[in-house]
Amino acid sequence: MRIGLLTDGGYPYATGESRLWCDRLVRGLPQHEFDLFALSRSAHQEDQGWVGLPHHVSRVRTAPLWTPEDGTLRGSGERGLLARLVTGGGVSYGRRDRKRFAAHLTALATAICATEDAGTEPATDGGLFTEGFYGLAELARERGGLHLALRSETTVRILEAASRARGTGRTVQSATVLDHLATAAELERVLRPLSLDWYGPESLGAVDLCHAASGGAAAIPGLLAKRFFGVPLLVTEHGVQLRAHYLSAPDAPFGAPVRAVLANFHGQLAAEVYRQAALITPGNTHVRRWQQRCGADPARQRTVYPGMAAERFSPVGEDEDGGGPDTLVWIGRIEPAKDLIALLHAFAEVRRAEPDARLRIFGAPAEGDEATAYLAHCRALAAQLFPDEATGAHVEGVSPVTFEEIGGPEVPDLAEAYAAGGVVVLSSVVEGFPISLVESMFCGRATVSTDVGAVVEVIGGTGLVVPPRNPRALADACIALLRDPERRARLGAAARARALELFTVEQNLAAFRGIYLELISHAPVRREADTTDADGDPLLFATPPEARLLGHWTQPHPLATGARVPVRAAGARPEEPRTGEPVAVGSLARSLPPAPEHSARLEHSARPEAAAARQPGSASEPVCVCAATGGPGVGDA
Predict the structure, then answer these.
(1) Quick one: which of 94, 98, 86, 88 has its CA closest to 64?
(2) CB 3.0–4.6 Å: which of 8, 266, 314, 344 could bond 39 by disulfide?
(3) What pLDDT, in 10s, does the model give residues 554-586?
(4) What is the pTM of this model?
């Protein structure tokens, strides 16, 4: 089938969120064809280029969300701007279109300015928010864009009127003209996906399934693909976008009224995404609970843990040597949320109980002034708490706490960093899915962690968990493991077994392989003619497998005689030809969705042997022989 993968600030760019996960997903499902629709976050991200794409990625469409269009009207002093309101494509609005724009934007502004108890937003269908959101989307599709319209004086006046209407809170009512201008600029940025040219029958209308790699802006094209073409939407979130927006709101360069309006917008957008998604796959139970608080239906949620490459940690995990038995290891980005201050105070208690203990901190290079200042503060605190110790009068002192970077002669790679100690510590006060914790589990290390995010779910009883911001409890747990090597070994072995069962790439691919087939098996039949024509020939998929054959697929073909013919994937780039590849007779059968009663059983099978049995070309796979009339027939191999 043809999958439209929607990303925001990640794949296929070389840097960004969920880049590695998306790349593993695409490469691990070569039986499907992928179209990528990517939103970029910054000019720096675009300058870094793309990662290498596999041959079954047919098309890549990108759009920036990080800069306004050149020549954007601000609406601050133009006379007669309402009469000259234009779209991003330069096409003038007529009187009727101006009324449509004002009506839809008024509905949207009323919805995001109102408080929760105003009664303007029924939870069943989205109310005014969906009326305004989809109305603007349809207008943008017909007229070519909304860039300038959303930054016009009309938009500012509508926002001002909505903020002063009945039902708004005091914070929103206190907005000034500068606040309305800032709100208009931010709305234009977050609604920019509405103005893209992705919503045609040959673009998102040609895919069988939209898979959004996150919520928020990445899911907006999926909402419109479902609205315009009925394409089912799958949403995967390893971290809730709305939660990330709430956490970053205090640092945003806006006043309280702007933050309140934007928070309402993102909250109602998240609710609409969860309402329209055919299935939601949170990366852990912590994310699952957040999604339910934002309106997700538990019946359409299915937890799928993100897969990680276990092979890179196998040499350490299978090694019986426990590393430095008196050494604690911390690995991650050095930032305030990781709470290294509490870790250093806890290690001071550890040193009083175990004088030979050491703490090795492996941190990624600091980026930004805040991270640099925090790293300097941690180094100063470590020097104050643990002055250099010398064994003699003429020997240089050595501190029991070291700050190191991975890549040096002693620690050339990440696996060696985990192997450097007997206990791995996580001291965070804010955490989503703890990747470093899973990596330490693959390495067979005992762990001490704070109870934040999905830590308890990931550990599952194979490590010690203490409250956050409690140096004394953190120190007691570390001391207990340092004094009991047998317990460390038992916990490390159990942690490795749990990680190999739940957090590998293979289990992640097996889950999404079944989910794709399940969703497409429940999708409405699409017709070869206009979708409004019920008499058109049914298409199993938007790009049927027979379209890969040279010539019309119902005509005699060398394939019938067993000849090998060179083919190239539909939409493949000229620089990546696929020549000399034989076409399997059973390719159509491999693309057929399973019956609904079998699809759930297929999705829940995460065993490696079950996944291998479903790989294309396996002996247990059905073979399809197509008759000259075009009717498929399925038989046993």
Answers:
(1) 88
(2) 8
(3) 455 444 444 444 444 444 444 444 444 433 333
(4) 0.77
